[in-house]
Amino acid sequence: MLKVNNLSKTYSKGNTKAVDNLNFSVKKGEIFGFLGPNGAGKTTTIKMIVGLLKPTSGKVIINNIDNQRNVLQAKRHISYVPDKPEVFDKLKGISYLNFIADVYGVKQEDKRKRMEYYLELFSMKDAVNDVISSYSHGMKQKIALIGALLHEPDLFILDEPMVGLDPKSSYNLKEVMRSRCEKGKSVFFSTHVLEVAEKLCDRIAIINKGKIVAQGTMEELRALEGEENSLEKIFLELTEK
Amino acid sequence: MRDIIRLTKVSLISGFNLHSFNIKNIRINKKLWKLLLAIAIIITFAVMYIGYFRFIDKLSLTFIQMNQSYYFNALLYNIMSLLIFIFGIPYIMAYFYFSKETEMLLALPIKPKNILVSKFLLLMIYEYIIVFLAVTPAFIINGIHQNAGLVYYVISVILLLIIPMAPLALCSIILMLVARVTNFSSKRNLIRGIFLFLITFLAIGIQIYLQNNAVLIEQGEFYQNLLTNNETLINMLGNINPLAKCLGTSLVSTLTIRSIMNLLIFIIVNLMFFGLFVVVGDKVYLDGIIGGNEVRSKKKELTDKEFNREINKKSSPYLAIFKIDFITILKTPIYLFNCYGAAIIVPIIIILPLMFGGEISSISIDSILDLYYVNTDFANFIIAGILILTCLFNPTSATTFSREGKYFWISRMIPVKSRDQIIGRSISALLPQIFLVIVLIIGLNSVLDVEIGTYIIGCGLGLLSSIPIILLGMIVDIQRPLLNWSNPQRAVKQNMNVIVTMLLGSIIVLGLGGLTWLLLRLMVDSIIIFGIDLVIILLLTIILYKILKNKIQVRFVEINQ
Fold it and tell me: Is domain A2-83+155-239 given the CATH code 3.40.50.360 in the classification?
């Protein structure tokens, strides 16, 4: 589903390496967690995957499509929810969702079904007629999530999705992630909540100072550290070296 | 006081992006076209500024020859204060009420009055740039013509520092009261947008009314007065704007008790306006912001029927892009005022003097009728020219990407073809032009029998030639969009892309206008000229469209946001 090959991003004429030669892949039907301390390069990597940042070198292949060459085609297969849910705040929630459905060319019947389902699931039906500027942080996050799910993306990419969500919405989002994988779709997300990553992810990659320091299933990560450690301990071990 | 200085300093650093400014980063651009563009912009500004110098030089001499030497500085102040007032309206609204920093500042242990005063000082500093550029050469030239001594120039400096105070304070007071009153409404942004227009019309209307009343003197008596009394004109101006008279009579080549008194009056009245601003601000500013947060739009849940109706709405991608852009403009008073304001204000400025201008208006209408009937072809191309010029000065297309600011990631993420982005955004930029055409047709039909050629050449050519200007604006904006702002005013009013578009667009306008004028002089049939213009416009549109399409594809990936 997603292949990241030798991906690098440098700033200040090559003096600062934000992301250094990353290699990993996300398979179909897999939830892939991307962990790392603040400033490790998680958001930079995600932005390069979704096409919001041009890599200095390397490739991002989504469903066998190079996201630098066939930009529009690649975009049709993914959706992205950023860490800060900045959505057009002058619009009503319903207008934003209609806009997203229009630009992704979602069929009317599918739009109706999905909108009803996700609005109900995230308890947004009562607020959908309000202007987005009146929403709380969590509500903005939820409307961005619903918008991102309307076209049933093959690869669902989220940057710190649990921040700002109430426990019920957080639980529902995890359920949505799982159900997507059961349908053969994939989820790639970054998080600081190690407990969520441990329970939810099929595979995990840990990034530190722009480099992937470990990746694999929980068992593989434990084997790497040689103990029956929790993800928290493994994370601390790997990122404080 | 410390708070005020600290806040103003922080606002200045943020407003002018001073921390990003590093002398080491300044390097000669290696790309030739960028270097040429920079040189062209500098030369254009220099030529315009030299032209302004020469104009004020002649004007100053004319008034001295007319025995009205006091009048020049006073007239300049009158024009400047009106401009500061009118252009201050969106600035004040943006900095006082629509700036995202305000909410953050109000949470800090700083008196709201200090926040207000620091914002006022920041606006004063912005106004100084314009005042210094426009007024300083005028004061100096007038001083040289009058052989003025050092005292004249010292007084000039004092006056330059005070000039923006009264108009800015008066405008702020009015806007704070408006904001206070409108804050109770859930549609306060829309109402405030409408008020921005109303206050502008009112300011222009009052100025026109006062000017008309000021010249109601018998012609013979007027000329007699001009010769015998060197204060005839300044006295007339004093009836409209007493502060202008104070300034004119205080800035004289020889210091007198009267000039000192007038200087003191000018300073004291300006300080009184500022004091009134502080007092009113202290009472109403906070309520104008905080109260509004308590009034949320009425929660209106959708019934199943309404929900079904809403989700049944379907648009093609370009229409979806247009809708988002259009709604954002309509719901952001600063965008509405700056992007669509000219289309509403320009016809009013033309119509108001014609309606209320007394004798002057009848002369104007007669001259318009004469021009139209005697030389209809020429008039038709003039109409087209007016339409292109309004498009050139309209910032809608040159800020189309900048206006999205932090939401721009959505436009870059969605799988929308460049073609749809261009069409959608062009429609919202073309709307004020279409509105102008409608107003123009109605206006022309009410005073004369409009010929079919006027619709085709004047309106048709005017509208079509707006398209390459719009595309050019978008090219400039996508090349270097201003996305990092916390105040919508920065996206439109302090966006260099607007100026660059105007300068580059003026090449198109001058080229087309020059060619048309030449062909008209050569007595070429207007239909042929229309055809030639049309071919050029079509070619320009195709070329610029292709450049823009390519630019969008490249820049949507490259921009580092």
Answer: no
